[in-house]
From TrEMBL:
<dbReference type="InterPro" id="IPR004675">
    <property type="entry name" value="AhpD_core"/>
</dbReference>
<protein>
    <recommendedName>
        <fullName>Carboxymuconolactone decarboxylase-like domain-containing protein</fullName>
    </recommendedName>
</protein>
<dbReference type="GO" id="GO:0051920">
    <property type="term" value="F:peroxiredoxin activity"/>
</dbReference>
<feature type="domain" description="Carboxymuconolactone decarboxylase-like">
    <location>
        <begin position="44"/>
        <end position="102"/>
    </location>
</feature>
<dbReference type="InterPro" id="IPR029032">
    <property type="entry name" value="AhpD-like"/>
</dbReference>
<dbReference type="Pfam" id="PF02627">
    <property type="entry name" value="CMD"/>
</dbReference>
<dbReference type="InterPro" id="IPR003779">
    <property type="entry name" value="CMD-like"/>
</dbReference>
Length: 176
């Protein structure tokens, strides 16, 4: 397999250099998986716009979706990256492991969100049982459902890119 070369700030467009600056502001550095998008003339801009879109989900809820979908897809890069971000957002290590296992007892509402995201990832959107009903009963609405689908699509994009590029993991490694 040909090694995927991660673009650096020295060999990207001015437009992508500006986005690198914004990414650094969010994460303290440009993660390799984000730099990989700069291989495409519009890839980084398109992904960054997708990432930073407004959502009815909180940052913690989005990170929970990121963790469970990355677990389903067995994406070591994304599990490592999103574990670090979840820690920054105040999740405890045990809570992160519970989210990844789809076994949450510390937050009923978050439990329904993670169950839904897990089911979407496992079944490609063919919701099983009472998962959607539980999601609505927990206080979510149709707008939240759309935002969960967007969040799943967002992390799935990262999972796919990592699976095909195997860029070096530049976060403390978490194992699948």
């Amino acid at each position: 397999m040909t090694e995927f070369v991660v673009p650096t700030e020295q060999n990207i467009s001015d437009k992508d250099k500006k986005i690198f600056g914004e990414v650094k502001g969010l994460y303290g550095k440009v993660p390799n998986i984000f730099a990989a998008f700069a291989s495409s003339e519009n890839g980084l801009e398109n992904y960054f716009n997708y990432l930073t879109q407004k959502s009815s989900l909180s940052d913690r809820e989005r990170e929970a979706v990121n963790l469970i979908v990355s677990q389903v897809n067995q994406c070591q890069y994304c599990l490592s990256f999103h574990t670090a971000i979840a820690n920054r957002l105040g999740f405890k290590e045990e809570e992160i492991l519970n989210i990844r296992a789809n076994d949450i007892s510390f937050d009923r509402k978050l439990k329904t969100l993670v169950a839904l995201a897990h089911n979407i990832a496992m079944t490609r959107g063919r919701i099983a049982g009472a998962i959607l009903e539980d999601f609505y009963e927990a206080g979510y609405d149709q707008g939240h459902l759309v935002d969960v689908v967007l969040a799943v699509g967002n992390i799935w994009t990262l999972n796919l890119l990592y699976a095909m590029t195997n860029v070096p993991i530049d976060w403390p490694k978490v194992y699948v």
